[in-house]
Amino acid sequence: MLQHWLMDRFPLLLASTMVGLLTSLSDLCGPATGGRAIARTSWRPCRPLWFFQPYLMGINRQPRLSHVQARAVSDANQETAEDAIDWEDIQASLGGDQDAFARLVARYQQLIAGYMWRFTRHHSLWEELIQDVFVEAYVSLPTYKRRSPWSHWLKCIATRVGYRFWRQRQRREPEVALDESTLAVAVVDHECSATDAAELVHFLLGRLSPRDRLVMTLSYLESHSIQQIAELTGWSSTMVKVQMHRARKRLKTLCSELEIEL
After folding, report:
1. In this structure, are residues 155 and 232 in contact, taking their beta carbons and an 8 Å threshold?
2. First-to-last CA distance in the chain?
3. What is the pLDDT of residue 25?
4. pLDDT single digits (tens) 131-143
5. What is the pLDDT at residue 15?
6. Which positions ≥6 away from 185 have C-beta within 8 Å?
7. pLDDT, tens digit, for every residue of 179-231?
8. 35 — alpha (psi -120 to 50), left (phi > 0) or beta?
C-alpha cells in the first residue's frame, strides 16, 4: 500500500530509495517477527509517518488539467504555431518575397471577408473594402512589431478601413434604404425571416452615426468585450462605455419612432 502511494508521487529511482528507507524505519519502530516488540532503550524513537507526509505530498506531482483547460492550452499552442508561421512570411515579405504576402492574404482572406460584410451589403463595395484592408496591411507591414498576433493587428486595420468607409459614406448617403415590405412586416407582424431581420438590423444601425454604429456592431454582432473594442478602435475603455451608452439610447429612440419592438 505504502509502495503504491510512493510510486504515484516519486520517480522510479527516488521511490525505490524511499520505500527501502521507510521499510527499515518500520522494522526498527514496529513489532518484530514472532509477535513481540523490540525494546527501545538504546535508540531514539523514529518519527511517525505523518511527520514525513508534508515533505512527500506534492513532490513531482503533475497537476491534472480539466477538458476546458486542456483545450485552452491546445488553442494557445496552435495560435503560437500560427503566429510563428505568420512571422516567417512577414519577414520574407519584407525581404522582397511577394509570394510570402500572398500566403498571408490566402490565410486570412476569409476572416477579413466575413468581418467586412458588417460594414456594407453591396458586393462591389465589399470587395473593395477587403482589397483596401490588405493593401493598407502591406504598406504598414514594416510597423508590425509582433506585440499581438498578426490576425489581431490585421483586424485593427480592417476596423479603421470600415469606420473610414462609414464616415465617407455618411457624407454622401446619410441614410440606408430599406425595403418597405420588410419594415412593414417588422412593425405590424413583429415577425420576419432571418434575412429580413439581418436587413432590418443593418438598416437601424445605418441610421446611427459611424461612431455609434461601430461600437454597436463590435459589441452585439461581433460579441467583443469593452477591452477588445478599445484595442480594435484605439479608444479608451471609458470612451467605449460612454459611446455604447449613447448608442443604445439613440437606437431605442429610433425604434420607438418607427414603432419597432426589439
Report:
1. yes
2. 65
3. 47
4. 999 999 999 999 9
5. 46
6. 191, 192, 196
7. 554 454 444 455 566 777 777 888 889 889 999 999 999 999 999 999 999 99
8. left
Best CATH choice for the domain 67-172 from the list 3.40.1160.10, 2.40.10.10, 1.10.1740.10, 3.40.640.10: 1.10.1740.10
Return the closest-CA partner of residue 56 out of 13, 24, 8: 8
Q: Given the C-alpha cell 419592438, which residue does it identify? A: 261
> Mind giving me the DSSP string for the chain?
-HHHHHHTTS-HHHHHHHHHHHHHHHHHHSBPTTS-BPP-SSSPPPPPHHHHHHHHTTTTPPPPPPHHHHHHHHHHHHHHHHHHHHHHHHHHHHTT-HHHHHHHHHHHHHHHHHHHTTT---HHHHHHHHHHHHHHHHHTGGG--SSS-HHHHHHHHHHHHHHHHHHHHHHH-SS----HHHHHIIIIIS---HHHHHHHHHHHHHTS-HHHHHHHIIIIIS---HHHHHHHH---HHHHHHHHHHHHHHHHHHHHHHT---
Type of residue found at 114 = G
Grid cell in block for residue 154: 490585421
> Do 67-172 and 180-258 show the same overall fold?
no
Cell 419594415, residue? Answer: 183
